[in-house]
Design brief:
Helix content of chain B: under 10%
Number of helices of chain B: 0
Helix content of chain A: under 10%
Structural class of chain A: mainly beta
Largest interface: A-B, 24 and 28 residues
Strand content of chain B: over 45%
Radius of gyration of chain A: 13 Å
Mean pLDDT of chain B: 90
Number of strands of chain A: 12
Strand content of chain A: over 45%
Number of strands of chain B: 11
Shape of chain A: globular
Shape of chain B: globular
Largest sheet of chain B: 7 strands, mixed
Low-confidence stretches of chain A: none
Distance between the termini of chain B: 37 Å
Oligomer: heterodimer
Number of helices of chain A: 0
Distance between the termini of chain A: 41 Å
Chain lengths: ~110, ~120
């Protein structure tokens, strides 16, 4: 069965510091992987997605993620965090391009001045 | 990008009443929509897959008689929480699936609807 694990419930980083959010997945075939961001009380916005090809994918708002098949990981990174990045981040997996997506538990990002 | 709108954003109702939440794709047609439920500080749990013109497909453990889903048109899916109870209080989020081919499928999410049952 598909599953997504985000080992960090919450992370605090200083503004301007680099960020890495961890994501591990379990899936029998080549997964479709996603990172979403959710601001309080709102829906989800897609940051980036990986289907195939280059394992380093670029997304919106300066985020990037790297797919590592050997580690079953799809970690999200950002070189310099801004206060506006404080939000909940969800890693997700699907069997096709977004159809019936399964979400991880989420990681809440706090940004300190 | 495609826009999905949910209404209402907030709803408070008395225990035993029914509440309808609408999910509309504003500038595109969506054959398939999904309904998720999110408990406070938790992830999204897929409740059901809503297919235009056919019955919804519910995930295991989701009561189909409690959560009625109707997808009557290509731009509208509704979730009705019947005989609501306090334990049904939650954040409900819909999403519409857009397929541009295998490489370009994407989910577009509504803003969510917070239901509070007193």
């Amino acid at each position: 069965a598909q599953s997504v694990t985000q080992p960090d419930i919450h992370i605090t980083v200083s503004e301007g510091a680099s960020l890495e959010l961890r994501c591990n997945y379990s899936y029998g075939a080549t997964p479709y992987l996603f990172w979403y961001v959710q601001s309080p009380g709102q829906g989800l916005q897609l940051l980036l997605k990986y289907f195939s090809g280059d394992t380093l994918v670029q997304g919106i708002k300066g985020f990037e993620a790297e797919f590592k098949r050997s580690q079953s990981s799809f970690n999200l990174r950002k070189p310099s965090v801004h206060w506006s990045d404080a939000a909940e981040y969800f890693c997700a997996v699907a069997s096709t391009g977004g159809f019936k997506t399964i979400f991880g538990a989420g990681t809440r990002l706090f940004v300190k001045a | 990008g495609a826009v999905v709108s949910q209404h209402p954003s907030w709803v408070i109702c008395k225990s035993g009443t029914s509440v309808k939440i609408e999910c509309r794709s504003l500038d595109f047609q969506a054959t398939t929509m999904f309904w998720y439920r999110q408990f406070p500080k938790q992830s999204l749990m897929l409740m059901a897959t809503s297919n235009e013109g056919s019955k919804a497909t519910y995930e295991q453990g989701v009561e189909k008689d409690k959560f009625l889903i109707n997808h009557a048109s290509l731009t509208l899916s509704t979730l009705t929480v019947t005989s609501a109870h306090p334990e049904d209080s939650s954040f409900y989020i819909c999403s519409a699936y857009v397929s541009g081919g295998e490489e370009t499928g994407e989910l577009f999410f509504g803003e969510g609807s917070r239901l509070t049952v007193l």
